[in-house]
């Protein structure tokens, strides 16, 4: 399950067309990874949290997730999110870098549609090439750590350690 989620996050991060994410509720941890992997991220106002809670529940954050977070979170929030599992409401999550902007909940779908329409006007060849240049090093590293860290052996080792 972790590998499938990591592969999906990598696919979103490297997708050659713009990806818009709209969030209206709790997003942790895989939800947070997928949002951070998207190109434009919109949050609805509301009473919910986003973050990477692995450390709080006794798990080591996978390296692919750390690299996704490094791409999007502001330096001031990176350690708070990754190493201390701090969770944030939508307004502070914009400051942290999880989202690009916050809109009233009733306007979320329209805002996402508006952004998607605007992004559809880009030259997709230029977009894909620029995204590959901008994210290429991170994408290669994430591909490598998925292959190194998340294998069937990884799951068996965790079960054996618990026994």
Helix content: 55-70%
Count, helices: 8
Mean pLDDT: 92
Number of DSSP strands?
3
Rounded to an integer in angstroms, the radius of gyration calculated over CA atoms is 16 Å
Counting helices, strands and paired strands, the structural category is: mainly alpha
Q: Care to describe what's here?
A:
With 163 residues, the chain is mostly helical. The chain has one domain: 2-enoyl-CoA Hydratase, Chain A, domain 1, CATH 3.90.226. Helix content is 58%, strand content 7%. It has helices at 2-14, 30-37, 63-72, 75-82, 90-96, 108-119, 124-149, 152-162; strands at residues 20-23, 40-44, 101-103. A three-stranded parallel β-sheet has the order 1-2-3, sandwiched between helices. The longest helix has 26 residues, at 124-149.
Summarize the structure.
With 163 residues, the protein is mainly alpha-helical.
Secondary-structure map with pairings?
Layout: H1 2-14, E1 20-23, H2 30-37, E2 40-44, H3 63-72, H4 75-82, H5 90-96, E3 101-103, H6 108-119, H7 124-149, H8 152-162
Parallel strand pairs: 1-2, 2-3
Helix pairs in contact: 1-2, 1-7, 3-7
What are its keywords?
163 residues; 2-enoyl-CoA Hydratase, Chain A, domain 1; 8 helices; 3 strands
């Amino acid at each position: 399950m972790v590998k499938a989620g990591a592969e999906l996050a990598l696919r979103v991060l490297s997708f050659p067309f713009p990806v818009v994410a709209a969030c209206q509720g709790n997003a942790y941890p895989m939800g947070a990874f997928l949002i951070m992997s998207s190109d434009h991220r919109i949050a609805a106002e509301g009473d919910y949290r986003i973050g990477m809670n692995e450390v709080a529940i006794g798990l080591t954050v996978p390296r692919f997730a750390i690299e996704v977070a490094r791409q999007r979170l502001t330096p001031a929030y990176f350690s708070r999110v990754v190493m201390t599992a701090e969770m944030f409401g939508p307004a502070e999550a914009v400051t942290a870098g999880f989202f690009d902007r916050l809109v009233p909940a009733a306007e979320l779908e329209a805002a996402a549609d508006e952004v998607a329409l605007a992004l559809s006007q880009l030259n997709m060849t230029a977009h894909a090439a620029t995204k590959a240049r901008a994210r290429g090093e991170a994408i290669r590293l994430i591909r490598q750590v998925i292959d190194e860290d998340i294998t069937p052996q990884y799951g068996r080792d965790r079960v054996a350690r618990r026994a």
